[in-house]
Design goal:
Structural class: alpha+beta
Order of helices and strands: EHHEEEHEHEE
Shape: globular
CATH architecture: 3-Layer(aba) Sandwich
CATH topology: Aminopeptidase
Number of strands: 7
Bound molecules: coenzyme A
Largest sheet: 7 strands, mixed
Strand content: 35-45%
Radius of gyration: 15 Å
CATH superfamily: Gcn5-related N-acetyltransferase (GNAT)
CATH class: Alpha Beta
Helix content: 25-40%
Number of domains: 1
């Protein structure tokens, strides 16, 4: 089951930060995560298995648009549709509101993530050169179909 994290204590923020670290080797500081969520600048959705958080999707609000901050699933739980579950839940949630577009950046070499975003009707809109220390970012966007 996917659950929404729309308020967060430091303990939960630590868990989210540790999960990011396991997946990306880098992570946001727990207090930054807690503030972003509690100030309603960000929402995390999490996927749990046996009480362990094994995947997450984080967005932040940028005016009328949304930016995906991160999406990841622990190695042993991949290819089970969990990232798709997180994406569907996030997109269903956003349809209730009047947001315009969802934007994201992804490493240009990350073909797995690029395939996933294309599957969810994101279109490549450009390239940001040297966005990462060692690599360009591919920029993707999609419109939110409000209900
Ligand atoms: C990208 C990631 C989140 C996908 O998670 P997942 O739970 O394995 O994804 P799903 O099982 O829901 O797969 C959804 C789609 O992604 C694509 N995909 C996932 N794994 C793939 C792989 N190994 N090879 C090719 N395409 C793949 C496919 O389009 C797949 O749809 P399909 O099953 O109909 O073919 C996961 O690989 C991950 O955490 N990677 C490291 C972090 C990362 O790169 N995050 C994205 C950048 S922010």
């Amino acid at each position: 089951m996917v659950s929404i994290v729309s308020n967060c204590d430091l303990n939960q923020a630590k868990n989210l930060s540790e999960l990011e670290k396991k997946i990306f080797n880098t992570s946001w500081d727990p207090s930054w995560i807690r503030e972003k969520i509690n100030n309603q600048n960000a929402i995390y959705w999490i996927k749990k298995e046996n009480d362990e958080i094994i995947g997450y999707l984080a967005i932040q609000f940028t005016g009328v648009d949304i930016e995906i901050l991160g999406l990841g699933v622990l190695q042993n739980y991949r290819r089970k549709g969990y990232a798709s579950d997180l994406m569907v839940t996030m997109m269903d949630y956003l349809k209730q509101y009047n947001y315009n577009k969802i934007f994201l950046e992804v490493r240009d070499s990350n073909n797995v993530a690029k395939a996933l975003y294309s599957k969810f009707n994101f279109n490549r809109s450009g390239t940001r050169l040297n966005y990462y220390k060692d690599e360009n970012a591919a920029l993707y966007e999609t419109s939110i179909n409000n209900e």
